[in-house]
Design a protein that fits this description.
It contains 13 helices and 19 strands. The protein has 552 residues and is α+β, with helices and mostly antiparallel strands. The radius of gyration is 34 Å and the shape is flat.
Length: 552
């Protein structure tokens, strides 16, 4: 049964020691993470390894996420860096034939001469997704996260590791480019049965979706109502979002949960979790160079044995390119590619950094303690200590030495027994030792002391009256509270006759009034008086009485 807790509740529970919360996170997010990894890496085994690594890194670094409700984009930001790490290790030569991933994971072959063949939405979705695999790494990641996984706005920007403005521009341009190119492909595949004119345009088509074919189909769509309807019904980005997902191996869950939390289980990762909100920094910039014969700055989308070239390539009457060459810069210090010289990167200086799990500890009115995680996010050990006198707050573990990647817990607490009602706000400073190069960080401490009014009732309770010679009974409630009381105060009653009456304030910290039944009916009456202080704390007292019908 799925874990019903919110993302924030799962994070909080895991950090408090509930290892079952990680299972809830896995069940919620692993399908999308694996689906994205499989699309990006073109390999199910590597996708499983990457998904495995993402959750082990999350188990180790989760304390650095400052906004637990943003767990989803944070996990995809980790995925982003792990995709970069995997593709860097193996280089990135984009394939033009994706059938190696297995039949269930790619579009079924569609014969170009099968005029009028029925093509299902699922087949078209698989076709579009296979075609999108030919995009460069960043562009495909934008599509996967925005269209397939539904990330938007600040969450998408954080997952991509860019600003919100940059993510908006990236999505807008990518949707425009891909939609223009893939629309022609989808209409060419799905629309010939309904449009004889399109069938004529594509007569003799060999399945190779060249620039010339794409432009002819696109121009035809602009003047054909039938194909325009096909375009609207089979929008490529909608098809991409609805394409069947890659399914993670069933055994992957057990492998992740068995290793989570074990020392050294998480793979080595050099990037720091010190971007806004405790998100991981982008591990490296993208360095891909795509060369297309006869065209510059083209997007190459491999589809089976053909290719879509989504670029402005000049005169459409020119002969289509006879080949497509895709090369990449391979980052290595010891070998060179047969097509591209090696890129030798300078050795980066050691990094220093400190991360806190939060900069605000708010215990509210009910919590007595909370944990603050202090983590070394750099490559150099440093000492840290707590500065400040935050009474009435207390803390345990006021400092220590943090090794690279190390994590220490500072516990903040408050004892309310002898404190007056009110709000308490203090601060402490987490201060690295002089010479570490790390700036001190201030942590705000907040708590409230709330006490409900103490009430004493003077009124009927269990009394029995006759309705002959009836007189409305009096009630008096004496109150004690550290804060002012909210007025007016009412007494309300339920019984054969219901009603409510305002009570009057008296100088001796009490309220007085009557239960004004009027013409009484026989039966039991229950009355209630609620008094609230100006901080919203409420106390209630109640009583009852019975009216009997007089005889005679």
């Amino acid at each position: 049964m799925p874990d019903a807790r919110t993302d924030a509740e799962l994070v909080t529970a895991y950090l408090a020691g509930d290892r079952g919360a990680l299972a809830g996170m896995y069940d919620r997010f692993s399908p999308g993470l694996y689906d994205t990894a499989a699309a990006m890496l073109r390999d199910r085994h590597e996708a499983a390894d990457l998904t495995h690594d993402v959750f082990l890194i999350a188990a180790e670094r989760l304390a650095q996420l400052r906004e637990p409700e943003r767990l989803k984009p944070w996990l995809y930001a980790v995925l982003r860096n792990e995709v970069y790490r995997h593709t860097k290790k193996r280089g990135r030569a984009l394939p033009t034939d994706f059938s190696a991933m297995g039949a269930p994971e790619v579009a079924a072959a569609i014969a170009p001469d099968a005029e009028g063949a029925a093509i299902s939405a699922a087949e078209l979705g698989e076709l579009v997704r296979s075609a999108a695999c030919g995009l460069d790494e960043r562009d495909q990641l934008v599509l996967e996260l925005s269209v397939r996984q539904g990330l938007q706005g600040a969450d998408l920007a954080a997952a991509l590791g860019v600003s919100a403005d940059q993510s908006y521009t990236m999505v807008h341009r990518m949707r425009d480019r891909v939609d223009r190119s893939l629309t022609a492909l989808v209409v060419a595949r799905a629309g010939r049965k309904d449009c004889p004119d399109l069938a004529l345009v594509l007569q003799g088509w060999d399945g190779n979706f060249t620039v010339l074919v794409r432009k002819r189909v696109a121009r035809h769509i602009e003047t054909c109502e039938t194909c325009e309807r096909t375009r609207r019904k089979a929008a490529p980005l909608a098809l991409l979002g609805a394409a069947p997902a890659f399914a993670a191996p069933l055994a992957l869950r057990d492998a992740v949960l068995a290793k989570a939390g074990l020392t050294g289980a998480a793979p080595a990762h050099s990037y720091a979790f010190d971007a806004d909100g405790g998100f991981p920094r982008v591990s490296r910039p993208l360095r891909f160079s795509t060369l297309v014969a006869g065209a510059a700055a083209a997007i190459v989308l491999g589809v089976g044995s053909g290719a879509i070239v989504a670029a402005n390539t000049g005169d459409e009457s020119a002969a289509p390119p006879t080949s497509v060459v895709v090369t990449t810069v391979v980052e290595t210090s010891s070998t060179t590619s047969s097509t591209t010289p090696a890129t030798v990167l300078p050795t980066a200086p050691p990094t220093v950094g400190m991360n806190l799990s939060t900069t605000v500890i708010d215990l509210g009115a009910n919590s007595n303690s909370a944990a603050l995680h202090v983590r070394n996010a750099g490559d150099v050990a440093f000492e840290w200590s707590v500065n400040g006198s935050p009474s009435p707050f207390t803390f345990a573990n006021a400092g220590g030495t943090l090794q690279p990647g190390g994590d220490q817990v500072l516990t903040l607490a408050i004892t309310r027994t002898n404190l007056a009602e009110g709000d308490y706000a203090r601060s402490i400073t987490i201060t690295p030792a002089n010479g570490s190069g790390i700036a001190p960080v201030k942590v705000a401490l907040r708590a409230r002391v709330e006490r409900a009014p103490v009430l004493t009732l003077d009124g009927p309770d269990g009394d029995v009256y006759g309705n002959c010679g009836w007189k409305d009974p009096n009630v008096i409630v004496t109150y004690q509270d550290e804060s002012a009381i909210q007025f007016p105060v009412f007494v309300s009653w339920d019984g054969p006759l219901d009603g409510e009456n305002q009570l009057n304030q008296r100088a001796d910290t009490s309220v007085f009034g009557q239960i004004m039944v009027g013409d009484p009916k026989a039966g039991q009456y229950i009355y209630i008086i609620s008094i609230a202080d100006v901080r919203g704390n409420v106390s209630t007292v109640s009583g009852s009485f019975t009216i009997e019908q007089c005889i005679g």
